[in-house]
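In this supplementary section we document a worked example of the pipeline. Step one takes a protein sequence of length 236 as its only input; no multiple sequence alignment statistics are reported here. Step two produces a three-dimensional model, which step three serialises into structure tokens for compact storage. The input and output of this example are shown verbatim.
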Amino acid sequence: MMVVDLFVPCFIDQLFPDTAWSTIKLLEKAGCEVNYNPKQTCCGQPLFNSGDIKHSTHLAQKFIKDFPHNRPIITPSASCAAYIRTHYASMVDKEQAVRLQNNTFELCDFLVNRLDTTNFNSVFAHKVTYHDACSALREYGLKNEPRQLLSEVKDLDLVEMPQRTDCCGFGGTFMVKYAPISTAMTEQKVENALSTGASYIVSTEASCLLNIQSYINAKKLPIKTIHIADILASQL
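The serialised model returned by step three reads:
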């Protein structure tokens, strides 16, 4: 049995804890023994993106202590995984940076490409459309794996939205610093999703889903958001 470490990002820890449990269920179903270190905290991405190198470096060094083993670290967030893989090299010891670069995986990537597991006997009788988060697509390189997993879900109808690779307007602090632009981008994303007739917008990124759902709630629109892990674990 493969032993893996679970890294739960801030948004999921604080706002979507059920998604963390879904991730555990999926990894265990795929034959992994999941280890969770309760001392873990933020990976430092929000601070780094805001230019606070001092404190993001501190969190990067803490991450090394929280995840000291040479084994896979799985997270249901491609943006966090991409950040760790790409930017820790400038903040931590080279050997440790290489270890984390080789061991840190987004959930869908790990399930498809490392465990060769795509079918969890999931059932989700809804039409959905998939949101390619910017960091997931452009920095991590995640594209086909989530779609491959969704194709195995019984009764799920995946319909691609127009301009599917456009940003949803979140962008971390971008949505705060440039709220009007961010809102316009979110509006476009949701309108594109609505045009498909989908009932749900699916993504690997809780931060994007939080941003999109906030707009949906404000406008009282007939669509919802859901993390892909929660769909895949629906029958576990």
